[in-house]
Amino acid sequence: MNSGSDVGENLQLADKLIAGAADDDCRLVVLPENFALMPERGRDKAKAAEEPGDGPIQTFLSDASARYGLWIVAGSMPLNSPQIAAERVYGGCPVYDPKGNAQAIYRKIHLFDVDLAENQESYRESRSMYPGDDVVSVDTPCGCVGLTICYDLRFPELYRQLVDIGATVFTVPAAFTATTGEAHWHTLLRARAIENLAYVIAAGQYGEHADGRSTYGHSMIVDPWGRVLAEAATGNCHVAADFDPDLPQKLRSEFPALANRRL
Question: In the CATH scheme, what is the code of domain 7-254?
Answer without folding.
Answer: 3.60.110.10
